[in-house]
Amino acid sequence: MEDKGAQCNMGSKRKRMTSFQDLDSDDLRTAKKIKVTVASGSYSSLGSSTSTDTSTSSERTDSKCSEVCDKCKTKVRRNPPRRASFTSLYNVGKLLGQGGCGSVYEGTRKEDGREVAIKYIPKGVSEYYLTIPGTMYRLPLEVALMQIVSRPPVCEHVLELVDWFEQPKKFILVLERPTSCMDLYDYCEMMGGKLNEAMARVIMLQVVLAVRHCRDRGVIHRDIKVENLLVQTDTLNVKLIDFGCGDLLREKLFRDFAGTTEFSPPEWVLDGKYQGRKATIWSLGVLLFGLVNGDLPFRKEAEIIRGRLRFKRGISKECRDLVRWCLKQDPLKRPVLEQILLHDWLSDRARP
């Protein structure tokens, strides 16, 4: 296998389509979503991502952006104010990764030579817009969520949005570019298909801290998997990437699924709804199982409902216990993030 340690691979390997529900009136419910045209892409993958929605398009679709925000009764700009052009600020280098949601290139900021990653997203792929509190113009979903999680103080385990631009046919995201990195899928393959527990512990701690940061900012990622985690091969530092399946976190149940099917919780399979925080814990359990076991715990819906776990020899009792806790069939019996950080398997390293 080719060693990709010298470059940053930000491409995804699983096909994924997104769909979202209307927002509530609490927390960040002042955000306003506007649906535009949909375009789907394809990825070669171990499993396919899917997205389903029980609401009708008339319930969720506006023909154009409102001039006045219904919640705050202030005028909303359709577009950000004019500023310097993308080409005047950044140089674009070679291709890093490509998928159905766009292409990612190396880049350099002209002002100071900072190395960045430049992601091009065709406008048909960006399905939703948000007008988030603190802004006066609408933003594509991924841009809006990344702006929320990138506000100071930033989290070192979440990829930072440095800048963004809108052009007639595409959006451009300027992202932090860590050195000597690859996605966690490729890293696991390079390590023989799985990680030892010491390495998995270092990585899982950072993932949980990244997810906690998103939760505290009112954001749910909804597609936590090895393809959406960058790891620096020389330090094992981890960055959570790709918020294209994300949403604003809410207490009410989600009635749509956005993400990768093998990571979907049993309550979604059985009832078509789930609580965002509890579904996130389930996905962390699937991730940890895959890191130490070398494969996913479930491939089919029947297996998700059955919930039977087959661990390979040599995995510690503490690790198996944490996986089983996260993958409880009853979502109310799953831990919260703080309990995961205090678990015996992580506790000696779980200090922010």
TrEMBL record:
Record-linked Pfam families: Pkinase
Region (Disordered), start-end ranges: 1-24, 39-62
A biological process from GO? negative regulation of apoptotic process
Q: Which PROSITE patterns match?
A: PROTEIN_KINASE_DOM, PROTEIN_KINASE_ST
Q: What is its EC number?
A: 2.7.11.1
This enzyme catalyses: L-seryl-[protein] + ATP = O-phospho-L-seryl-[protein] + ADP + H(+); L-threonyl-[protein] + ATP = O-phospho-L-threonyl-[protein] + ADP + H(+)
Read off the InterPro entries from this record. Kinase-like_dom_sf, PIM_Ser/Thr_kinase, Prot_kinase_dom, Ser/Thr_kinase_AS
| SUPFAM superfamilies from the UniProt entry | Protein kinase-like (PK-like)
The Gene Ontology CC terms held by the record are:
cytoplasm
Q: What are the protein's UniProt keywords? A: ATP-binding, Kinase, Nucleotide-binding, Serine/threonine-protein kinase, Transferase
> Which molecular-function annotations from GO does this UniProt entry contain?
ATP binding; protein serine/threonine kinase activity
User: Please, which domain of life does this record's source organism belong to?
Assistant: Eukaryota
User: Which intervals hold domain Protein kinase?
Assistant: 90-346
Q: Where is the composition biased (Low complexity)?
A: 40-58
Q: Which family does it belong to?
A: Belongs to the protein kinase superfamily. CAMK Ser/Thr protein kinase family. PIM subfamily.
This chain belongs to which protein, by name? Answer: non-specific serine/threonine protein kinase
Instruction: Give the organism the record lists.
Output: Salvelinus namaycush
Read off the lineage from the record. Answer: Eukaryota, Metazoa, Chordata, Craniata, Vertebrata
Quick one: which gene encodes this? LOC120050683
